[in-house]
Amino acid sequence: MATTVSGESTGAVVGSGEPAAVTVTEKIEPVRKSIRVRATAERAFRVFTEEMDSWWPRTHHIGSSPMKRVVVEGRPGGAVYTEQEDGTPCPWGSVLEWEPPHRFVMAWRVSPEWKYEPDLAKCSVVELRFTPGDDGTTLVELEHRNIERHGGACADMRAKVGSEGGWGGLLVLYAAKAGGAV
After folding, report:
1. Given this model, what pLDDT does residue 25 score?
2. Which residues constitute the domain of residue 171?
3. Does any domain span residue 9?
4. Contact criterion met (CB below 8 Å) for 78 and 94
5. Distance between CA 67 and CA 20 in Å, rounded?
6. Count: domains in the chain
7. pLDDT, tens digit (0-9, with 9 covering 90-100), for 26-52
8. Residue 66: inside a domain, yes or no?
9. Distance between the two ends of the chain, CA-based, in angstroms?
10. At 157, which helix (H) or strand (E)?
């Protein structure tokens, strides 16, 4: 069953699953990455979401102390956050759409300064699609879009999340945990 949460900012389209847009002068091309994994769509989805802590690098967090674990609350409106060694939670995403095992959409609540962004209208969106293959594998497609919502530093944000140290490398780590890349 598909479920959606509307944006928290004034101007969001109710039920759209995305925050309201901010005025920008230039549209930034989304970052698109994909990988085929040796896993069913159910397992691929579960490893990406429920088991994110098993593959997410401890260096990739915006908390003030070392990262302890990653948590994805599997429901619309759920938080995506890290627990830090000092006991504090550090949110960095909000679940916008939750459609196991086919689709997961979250607001990327990370500012260009790599800090928590409380305003959804200034957040980009990360969507993952899990498409089963006839051979028991699953194609995992990631799109990080609306990057222009990050304002003046959006080109730098795009470069970082689009790099091998960003989503490209993260998908490789994820694939290894999910059953290997094909």
Report:
1. 54
2. 27-178
3. no
4. yes
5. 30
6. 1
7. 789 999 999 999 999 999 999 999 999
8. yes
9. 29
10. helix 154-161
* Burial label, 11 (beta-carbon count in 10 A; 0-12, 13-18, 19+): exposed
Taking residue 45's Cβ as centre, other Cβ atoms within 10 Å add up to: 26
Q: How far is the C-alpha of 97 from the C-alpha of 145, rounded, in Å?
A: 15
Which tokens belong to 3?
């479920």
- Output the pLDDT for position 143: 98
Q: Is residue 111 part of a domain?
A: yes
User: What pLDDT does 17 receive?
Assistant: 58
Output the CA torsion sign for 83, 63, 156, 6.
positive
3-state helix vs strand vs coil in the chain, percent to 5? 25, 30, 45
User: What pLDDT is stored for residue 160 in this prediction?
Assistant: 96
- Spell out, as residue ranges, where the chain has pLDDT lower than 70: 1-25
Residue 125 lies in a domain: yes
Q: What are the residues whose beta carbons fall under 8 Å from the beta carbon of 135, sequence distance 6 or more?
A: none
